[in-house]
Amino acid sequence: MVKELKIELKLSFIVLLFFFALFCVSAITTSAEAEFEITYLRIDVEIMEDLSLRESVDIIIYPKEEMDFNLYLPKNYRNLEIIYNDEKLDPSITQIIKLASNELNSIKISYFIAGAVEGKKNDFIYMRELLYSNVKNLIFRIKLPPAYGINSEDISAIIPEPTYLQSDGKRIIVLWEMKSPKTPMMFKIKYNSLVTNNGVDMNILVSFAIILILFISLGIFLLYRFTNKKELEVKIPPSLLSEDEMTICDIIKNEGGIIKQKKLSSLTGFSKAKITKILTNLEKKELIEREPVGRTFVITLKKKIDH
């Protein structure tokens, strides 16, 4: 009886050791995956009429430790080019890149794939599986061949739902912008020719619509310029302004009525705090308007000073 009890205890101890080892391996794997994050991933695909495509991938990673990174290259690629931190690598060596720790690692990949699109009767289907994990920011753009489009009534034509559906005048562009997408993720586009059976090219209508939009945009722009010019013609007496405010207004006027805020400091010698205070006062007097651009502001003069 004692002997059987000892055997059971040994077996129980071995089972506990086994599960403890599994837990440790899982924790180490999870920790390793969390050691890096793809800060930026951009994929550009240009589909050709012969069902081939050109693809380029831009990756920026900041790993905490030195590690191997899998490029996840597709099958049957040709003309592969790999640039790592502005250095061109030999593409025949491997699809694994050793990343440097605690610094930004930039990877640029480009290649050509023949027969990448599947043709089914009148439809063409392109599919791409995203395998990269821990992606923080994803931009995925696909250009269809000229004179090809997407059936808007077919809800399964684009999966997942795109952020934008655009045109550059010749091609339809499908664009996804995602934050921390769950991977692996499958992307799919089903498209077809815009040329109908009677030979009428629907792309002509698309081109006409784009030209019409351009004319409308030009009209709006000219109207805005005319309105803005009339607004500038409204003059105010200089007695309402301090000497520093007059200095700032004269500089903006000499720069063509528009200037970046950071440039004012170098031209006047004023501190950033003083520049901000003067601009705030001018904005309250409706003499200028400020528009944030990046880390600075663009200052536009709205009214003239009656010198």
Entry summary:
This is MarR family protein. By secondary structure, the chain is an alpha+beta fold. The protein is built from five helices and 20 strands.
What's the overall average pLDDT, rounded?
Answer: 83
* Largest sheet strand order: 5-4-7-2-1-10-14-13
What is the CATH architecture descriptor of the largest domain? Sandwich
The proportion of strand residues reads: 35-45%
Tally of alpha and pi helices: 5
CATH topology of the largest domain: Immunoglobulin-like
Share of residues in helices: 25-40%
- Reading the helices and strands in chain order gives HEEEEEEEEEEEEEEEHEHEHHEEE
Q: What is the straight-line distance between the termini?
A: 112 Å
Shape: extended
Number of strands: 20
Structural class: alpha+beta
Q: State the fourth-level CATH superfamily of the largest domain.
A: tricorn interacting facor f3 domain
Estimate nothing, just give the exact number of structural domains. Answer: 4
